[in-house]
Amino acid sequence: MANTDFDDIEVIIQGCIRKSIKHQELLYKKYFGYALSIAMLYNSQRNDAIETVDDSFLKVFSEIERLDTKQSFKGWLRKIVINTSIDKFRKKTREMPLIEREALPDIHESHGANIEQPEIISRLTAQEIIEMLNELPEVQKTVFCLYEIEGYCHEEIAGQLNMSMSTSRVYLTRAKKRLRELYQVYYNTNHK
User: Fold this and answer.
1) DSSP calls for 80-107
2) Considering only the top CATH level, what class is 3-95?
3) Which class is 118-190 in CATH?
4) Over the stretch 76-108, which tens digit does the pLDDT of each residue have?
5) pTM, to two decimals
6) DSSP class per residue in 30-83
């Protein structure tokens, strides 16, 4: 196999369809970082996100022959990682009741920064944004990511997470409120 075959996604996918372990390894290494970045949106702990990625790739390898050649592999993988994250979320919520811990320290009114100003928001680093998302209770984080990042509607979120649409809306509202509060903390702590 020539070196260019290792970079050609279509060749790698064809190898995965043939169940070639070498091609599966190449695909995993090539898209691990991408899949992990998605999984981190839905998992607060890196180990949980890595487990989600591993589970997602198991699904990819078992169903890769179903991939439509006209479809983007990255888009297909993204959907699998999100659905795997949702499955893990559902499993967790079946094992224990949904209990939200609203344990943020009291954060008083705005300290002069307005979250609606794009130039202030643009000062946040990607790491700070992820840290703020990880401060959210898991159910709020999941609803927020599905709605604001993935573009799901409340009806879809409710169906995916086994909750009512009004509950989905409440969690989104709480997530946004919490993020505004956290923003004030991060902005005042890191951008003085």
Assistant:
1) HHHHHHHHHHHHHHHHS-------PPP-
2) mainly alpha
3) mainly alpha
4) 999 999 999 999 888 877 765 544 433 333 333
5) 0.71
6) HHHHHHHHHHHHH-SSHHHHHHHHHHHHHHHHHHGGG--TTS-HHHHHHHHHHH
